[in-house]
Amino acid sequence: MSAFKKLASDTALYGVSTILGRLLNYALVPVQTYAFGQPKQLASNVELYAYIALLLVLYTLGLETAFFRFAARRPETTPKVFSDTLSMVIVITSIATVVLLWLAPDIARWLDYPNQTMFIRWSALIVAIDAITAIPFARLRVENKARQFVKAKMINIGIVVALNVFFIIVCKDVYEGDYLPQLRPFVQYIYDPEIGPGYIFLANLLGNACYFWLLRKAFAGFRFQLDWPEIRTLYLYAYPIMLTGLANVVNNLTDRLFLRHYLPEGFYAGLTNEDALGIYGQCYKLSVFMALAIQSFRFAADPFFFSKAEDKNAPGLLARVTKWFIIVCVLIWIGVSLNLDVLGLLIGPKYRQGLGIVPLLLLGNLFLGIYFNLAFWFKLSDKTKYGTLITVIGAVVTLLGNMFLIPIMGYMGCAVAFLASSVVMTVICYVLGEKHYPVPYDVRSALGYITGAGLLIYASLQIDIPNPWIAVPFHLALFGLSAAVIAVIERDTIREGWARFRRSRKPAPVGSSQ
Predict the structure, then answer these.
(1) Nearest-CA neighbor of 238 among 109, 112, 369, 57?
(2) pLDDT tens for residues 150-195?
(3) What is one GO cellular-component annotation here (predicted)?
């Protein structure tokens, strides 16, 4: 039980900070969608941030996971492994960044954003900083320095949010003479209205640059070195992980990269393809609540389960953790899907027509989270080639799904393709895992909760309640009822867990050897 508590504690710490930070960041969605009322204005942001995520996987080469694995096996070599992995990332990142900065005008024309060369360059610098700081962040997780990790992330989010508000609201209003006329000469010096949505990239870049100061202790002891035998060992382990990560990114980002190009012109009356991409990209952010739960769990789970690799009780622990992970994610799926009428107010009016994609995206993320849990079998057994195979299959499903469904269903086709890919990956991973690393998962429980939640969401969406004073209490009551049903079903487990928790809180008897 102590191991379970440790994982829960770390997940809570990473989770509260990650959720709070991302919610602060999500507060920018109404700022951005109201400031840029035409969805096409944010189309390039949606697409370029997808490329940033793609490049980050290529730059880091899966070395974060390799660092976890080798640091857990040989803790005494952690400083050397840290230097080796970070040195590799620095070399790759430096070369790629120079190329991107040089080719930025050509890339802007190729992406059909010819006037946004500076946006490309800022994006290149953003991904460079993210890549270089990824290994120091991994070091904090390996060394169980969650508070330092959290502090750096929170300060970064605060800076990015503040700079967005400063550029997009304050500078814009002062420049246009709405208030504080005495500051207009200063604002004219730093603010150019032609940049517009580009200030989102600039704010991100300036916030990320602060990481080098915030993580200065995590860089301690780093020496640039290229120990080729060690690097080869790290690379051979990490390369399949990188391909897995790349396929995962393709699964998550193909929709935003394909939508503008595969959507027939005029598919949505009165909207351009750029408008459709802007709508999809902003509505997609409402699935952030599920992604946050998954990300928070993974921050704690990766180093935790690697440290338990040789423990004979690891399969049973993984099964229990996965069961409760699914329960929490199901409650998030229900809570968000039933309250889209309220959550939709967070985005500008012209963006709300895409809210129908959110329940499917949430379900896709739920299955993706289950897959990440199941995937520990090939990481713990050093059979990462299976992870590559599974995610490549998922990527193919995503690519083909978007190519065929976008022309027929528009951005709803993107959501369906993502869900299909996540389900396929989860099923394949489970079947292979049962052969190579059996884990006693409670499959009946998982399918029951997901099916029941899906039926509830579908039924509630068929009931149109235009009055929010009736709709909101009704939806909250349905959510509460769902939580109560789960509590009744799991009452024995909850009662046992509560009893163990209370016992663990009692002080040890005087004279006890414990």
Answers:
(1) 57
(2) 888 889 888 998 999 999 888 888 888 888 888 888 888 888 888 8
(3) plasma membrane
